[in-house]
Amino acid sequence: MIFRMKCLKKIPIGLWLLLLPLVAQSQTSSPYRVDENQMYGMYSGLALLMDVHYPTRPNGYGIVFIAGSGWHAPMGYNAPPLKGIAQTLQYVKPLVEAGYIVFAINHRAAPRFRYPAAVEDAQRAVRFVRYHAKRFGIRPDPIGAAGGSSGGHLVSMLGVLDGNELRKDVDPVNRESAKVQCVVARAAPIDWVLFKEKGDPTGMVSFLGMMPNFVNVDSTTVEYKTYNEAFPLYHVSKDDPPFLLIHGDADKTVPFENSEKMEQALQKVGVPVKLVPIPGGGHGATFPGAKNPPDYLGEMCRWFDRYLVIK
User: Fold this and answer.
1) With CB atoms counted within 10 Å of each terminal CB, which end of the chain scores lower, N or C?
2) Helix locations, the chain, DSSP H
3) Residue 132 lies in domain
4) What is the pTM for the complete model shown?
5) What CATH number is given to the structural domain containing 218?
């Protein structure tokens, strides 16, 4: 891929590390039937697209997948689509082999779009899939979601937010629920406060469009309220779906404590949750630095088999 260097030079080092997977990975072809560029919505004339991956032997269940990008996308016509990078295929492939129809989505991203745009798009994708469930050959009620890093944050939000139907909306798609029934989140930013002393807050600051005050925390400020609203930990409740959390314990971008804190919060309200640590694993889809990592892709598939599929 060729990008305008004058644009890349303006990207802060921390944010560049989050964007690197997008720049380095070209679109990778899938060994399965893929219906590309299906439009699940349109915002101000901008098409929101997804690729639908079909298994040879579908089991009748659908999963929305969101790749990690630091909530960002390079600005330019040649920016690689999030739904088509190698990271996406790495996680989608085993799910498709297990019989799931997977909906890999693009979403609005910073710096052009700020919170809550990406969350709204993720919710729109779930509503779209649910509304068109018969067309896709899946059950409309139990829908799963999986994602990593910023994508892990977004699928976690799909699990913890109410996702209520917009009953009076003129678009029938928006009258569907955006709540998912099972979540797998890899290295997800869960609590903004944890970035005070560890990790790299660059991406979330750009995503939110405002700086958090880590020193003098004032719960009355717009910044404090917005950050709490934007992160999954502050929405956990007993009606949330089962969560599988996968995280490298040597992650220096999104601290491992994020998943530990989410595990504790979900356990406290009685929601099924499992944390799979990757010893020595850093931040990235393949957990760089990990030695003899557990079968995290198998764990993902088994989690959906256990909690998404109706027996």
Assistant:
1) C
2) 5-8, 13-24, 86-97, 117-131, 133-136, 150-160, 202-208, 222-230, 257-268, 296-307
3) 5-307
4) 0.90
5) 3.40.50.1820
